[in-house]
Amino acid sequence: MSFAAKSRSAPGAHRLARAVLLVALTTGPAQAAPPAGLEVIRPWSRPAAAGGSGAGFMELTNRGRTADALVAVASPLARNVEMHRSVMAGGVMSMRRLARVAVPAGGAVRFAPGGHHLMFLGLSKPLKAGDGLPATLTFASGAKLNVTFAVGTGIGPPAPHRH
Ligand SMILES: [Cu+2]
Questions:
Q1: How far does the centroid of ligand 1 lie from the alpha carbon of residue 119, in Å?
Q2: 27 CA to middle of ligand 1, Å?
Q3: Which fold, 38-151?
Q4: How far is the CA of 37 from the centre of ligand 1 (A)?
Q5: Phi-psi region of 141 (alpha: psi -120 to 50; beta: other; left: phi over 0)
Q6: Residue 35 C-alpha to ligand 1 middle, in angstroms?
Q7: pLDDT digit string (tens) for 25-69?
Q8: pTM of the entire structure?
């Protein structure tokens, strides 16, 4: 009985599915390439002054079967965003700018204080606890991810920079 009822409603459902597919096809090309299994977990930032530098921390995971790499970051609130790595050498902590950060297939990269981090240079407004710092991550594959870094109270400003 229920099988017969399903069969009768099928043609209508099929038309609906085709309509949805058409919409997907016509809107698809205008959008950025879909991130293939890339995900940002717990993006966070610290308070910072306008004109100064903000920091961005997160865990970047790649559930896909293809390796990718973070190659660029942009934010409407920063003049420029750089990828950095803190390096301890001879008892002195310094920063290295990175052109790309590889995200292995099925792996993850952690951006955390003392290691990889994002630097938001030339902030157009101060970052206060409770604010959101928007950014777009661009990957070597062409995938883009929009992320909002949650500004926490932090534990003091990011470590001093030596570039
Ligand atoms: Cu830095």
A1: 5
A2: 38
A3: Immunoglobulin-like (2.60.40)
A4: 27
A5: alpha
A6: 26
A7: 444 444 555 566 999 999 999 999 999 999 999 999 999 999 999
A8: 0.73
pLDDT over threshold 60, residue 73: yes
Q: How many angstroms does the Cα of residue 17 sit away from the middle of ligand 1?
A: 49
The pLDDT tens digits for 5-33 are 444 444 454 555 555 444 444 444 445 55
Q: How far is the CA of 146 from the centre of ligand 1 (A)?
A: 21
